[in-house]
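Sequence, please.
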């Protein structure tokens, strides 16, 4: 209790030093943390609700629509998490009605999507019609506003609902449409679609298609570089290989998932799932003690688990005890798991029923096993994987045989064989195709060899006939001559054969030398590639550390501001902090990008403008627009350009909109048809005084702007009526110039 009170006091102290926006962010994050704890610690539920209500008050006080909406979303999702639609719906409806009054269809689509996504993912059957309606509205509005990403995500959620209702074929059709929408826009969420398709095909027993989409999932996740998501994907791959009886491959995939999870840290549920899958595979390999040790290590962690995760951990122990024939311990864990059935969705109770049936069959208690097997056989289509269903029919065959119900036993055996054969056909179809291709290739090669041999035989026959005719005409004299020539040729052939043998030995020696040099060259190339990879990672680490150091400087400036009361000093510190932030963004962009030499200016400009608006607390009164084409600039050019933009936008925020006047600041960057680029910064504020000459000003901001423009050899000009317009025309840095700059 003391630790919790200390943490709460520290959070309250931290809030005093934050801006209004920062307070809302902190309280929302704090509430979400408390809500996550409430699943295992119900006492935290009231604390989470109180924090969300506080966030709503703070969000309204800021006057910013974004934080008002986020606090309403948080409150609505809180009640939906606890199945209280009547209390949760009004909060979402407030956001929806506000967007409708504003005519903001894009925002309304987002609100409907957040409404549907506010329900817990493990909900089955409950509020299905409402969730389906919310996502359908979100999809329709997203299509109207050409928001392809949100339209795809909405249809994906619709497919999930149909799959949960047992409509697998319909869900597959919808998910294939989602993939077709996400691939052209390179959506980062496409891996979720691939994984969902793999999961449905696996339950249907179409393991070739399931494996195809699961491998695409792995490739997609690895391409993002997000190591955090890899353990769960490799967990899925391990389960897939286990379904097709490739246990060694299954264990290898699960060990990889386990290793990455140990390195990256994973949510408790993922840790339990990996331990369950890996322990099962090790038991299949006969490594029972090693499997039990992995499960017990997770048990000893005493992780905060929801009821479903507790069931999975108990079932992992059961697998080990069954493999070790410790049936009493297995039954104890299974009965504990069965007692949790009322707290989890219906489809998540089925593994416990399967294990109970398996246990009672192993102990020859067939009467106890039958109800659990009947429960699995009566489950809705799609809830039991095809492989598991085949095994259930095999168990039912044993039960009916033992009880003398031979007709039922035969029916179950036939069903088992049908399912098992269909699974075999699905998993082996690709191999059959490969064998057919190989067979056709061999047939063609044999035909070519046969034609070559026939040609050689025909040519030999022709030569033989010619020889007989010549021999007949030449007579004995020619025969003697032929014998001499033949003898001479025989000697020549012997010499030729000897020379050929020597030459062949020399060629073999040369080939061995060439192979040795090739191996050495491959080794050198491999080392070079490793050095290049290490260099790239080192560069990324340097940029990351530079960014972190700049962030530390920014934080020190922010901390220093709490001890100052002079407004001029505070303004100077804030401007210095913004300059540091502009440089830090460069290094952040570089270590997050695959291109270590160039910066994506479109995203960079957007982040500079958003950061300045938030720093000056003008998000509600001044609108920042970025109209930049897809331009990538070298680091030596992007850094001074970012500082110049930082100063120009800062001047506009300080002087163009006095007394909280509303307005717009537009930053544009375009590539000219001729060589070079044009930067434009425009505000619609009060404008410059009539007697003000920017070129003669000695203010720090304008001095930096002029200095940066000279550094990049740009042409700077000011103008505009009813506001201020800055134009800067410059050229890209040439290689020689860049080299000189780096050397300097």
């Amino acid at each position: 209790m003391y630790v919790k009170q200390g943490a709460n006091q520290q959070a309250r102290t931290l809030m005093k030093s934050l801006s209004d926006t920062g307070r809302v962010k902190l309280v929302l994050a704090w509430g979400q943390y408390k809500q996550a704890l409430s699943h295992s610690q119900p006492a935290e539920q009231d604390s989470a609700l109180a924090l969300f209500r506080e966030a709503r008050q703070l969000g309204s006080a800021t006057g910013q629509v974004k934080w008002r909406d986020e606090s309403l979303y948080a409150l609505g999702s809180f009640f939906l998490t606890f199945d209280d639609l009547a209390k949760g719906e009004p909060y979402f409806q407030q956001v929806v009605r506000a967007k409708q009054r504003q005519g903001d269809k894009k925002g309304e689509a987002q609100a409907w999507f957040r409404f549907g996504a506010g329900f817990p993912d493990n909900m089955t059957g409950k509020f299905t019609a409402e969730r389906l309606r919310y996502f359908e509205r979100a999809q329709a509005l997203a299509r109207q506003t050409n928001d392809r990403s949100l339209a795809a995500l909405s249809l994906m959620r619709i497919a999930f609902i149909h799959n949960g209702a047992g409509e697998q074929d319909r869900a597959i059709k919808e998910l294939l449409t989602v993939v077709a929408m996400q691939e052209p826009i390179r959506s980062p969420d496409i891996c979720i679609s691939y994984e969902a398709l793999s999961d449905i095909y696996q339950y249907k027993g179409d393991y070739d298609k399931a494996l195809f989409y699961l491998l695409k999932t792995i490739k997609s996740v690895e391409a993002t570089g997000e190591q955090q998501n890899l353990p769960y994907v490799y967990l899925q791959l391990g389960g897939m290989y286990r379904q097709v009886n490739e246990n060694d491959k299954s264990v290898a995939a699960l060990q990889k998932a386990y290793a990455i999870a140990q390195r990256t840290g994973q949510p408790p549920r993922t840790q339990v799932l990996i331990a369950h899958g890996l322990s099962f595979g090790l038991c299949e390999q006969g490594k029972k003690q090693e499997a039990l040790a992995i499960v017990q290590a997770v048990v000893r962690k005493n992780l905060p688990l929801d009821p479903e995760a507790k069931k999975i951990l108990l079932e992992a122990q059961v697998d080990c005890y069954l493999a070790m024939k410790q049936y009493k311990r297995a039954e104890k864990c299974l009965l504990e798991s069965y007692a949790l059935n009322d707290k989890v969705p219906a489809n998540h109770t089925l593994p416990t029923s399967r294990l109970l049936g398996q246990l009672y069959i192993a102990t020859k208690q067939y009467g106890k096993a039958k109800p659990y097997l009947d429960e699995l056989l009566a489950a809705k289509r799609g809830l039991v994987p095809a492989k598991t269903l085949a095994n259930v029919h095999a168990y039912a065959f044993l039960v009916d045989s033992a009880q003398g119900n031979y007709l039922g036993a035969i029916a179950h055996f036939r069903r088992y064989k049908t399912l098992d054969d269909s699974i075999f056909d699905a998993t082996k179809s690709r191999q059959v195709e490969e064998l057919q291709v190989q067979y056709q290739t061999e047939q063609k090669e044999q035909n070519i060899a046969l034609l070559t041999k026939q040609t050689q035989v025909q040519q030999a026959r022709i030569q033989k006939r010619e020889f007989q005719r010549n021999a007949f005409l030449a007579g004995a004299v020619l025969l003697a001559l032929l014998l001499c020539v033949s003898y001479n040729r025989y000697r020549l052939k012997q010499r030729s054969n000897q020379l050929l043998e020597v030459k062949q030995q020399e060629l073999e020696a040369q080939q061995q030398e060439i192979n040795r040099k090739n191996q050495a060259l491959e080794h050198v190339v491999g080392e070079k590639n490793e050095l290049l990879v290490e260099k790239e990672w080192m560069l990324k680490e340097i940029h990351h550390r530079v960014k972190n150091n700049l962030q530390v400087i920014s934080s020190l400036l922010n901390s220093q501001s709490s001890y100052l009361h002079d407004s001029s000093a505070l303004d100077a510190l804030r401007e210095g902090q913004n300059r540091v932030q502009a440089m830090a963004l460069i290094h952040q962009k570089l270590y997050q990008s695959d291109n270590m030499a160039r910066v994506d200016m479109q995203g960079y400009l957007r982040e500079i403008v958003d950061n300045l608006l938030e720093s000056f607390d003008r998000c509600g009164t001044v609108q920042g627009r970025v109209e930049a084409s897809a331009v990538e600039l070298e680091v030596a050019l992007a850094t001074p350009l970012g500082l110049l933009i930082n100063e120009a936008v800062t001047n506009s925020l300080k002087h163009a909109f006095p007394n909280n006047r509303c307005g717009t600041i537009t930053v544009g960057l375009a590539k000219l048809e001729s060589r070079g680029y044009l930067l434009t910064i425009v505000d619609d504020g009060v404008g410059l005084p009539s007697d003000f000459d920017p070129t003669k000003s000695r203010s720090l901001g304008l001095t930096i702007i002029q200095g940066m423009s000279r550094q990049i050899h740009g042409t700077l000009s000011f103008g505009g009526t009813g506001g201020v317009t800055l134009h800067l025309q410059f050229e890209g840095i040439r290689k020689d110039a860049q080299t000189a700059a780096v050397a300097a």
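The two ends are 59 Å apart (CA to CA).
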